[in-house]
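Team,

Forwarding the record for the chain on the shared tracking sheet. I've put the sequence and predicted structure together so nobody has to dig through attachments.
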Amino acid sequence: MSEETENLFNAIFELEEIRELLRQTAPSHKLTDEQKRKLSNSILIVRESLKKLEEFL
């Protein structure tokens, strides 16, 4: 798998993790400390993956 494709799949996977977290905490979205940590980590991975994808422009 190419690096571009891998970064794309990493970003999509983490966005799905975020969607699931928000679904589990709906409607108030009050997150526990562990959920906040997971959300923060997922956002970081998405940002890193997108940054790597931007390098191909």
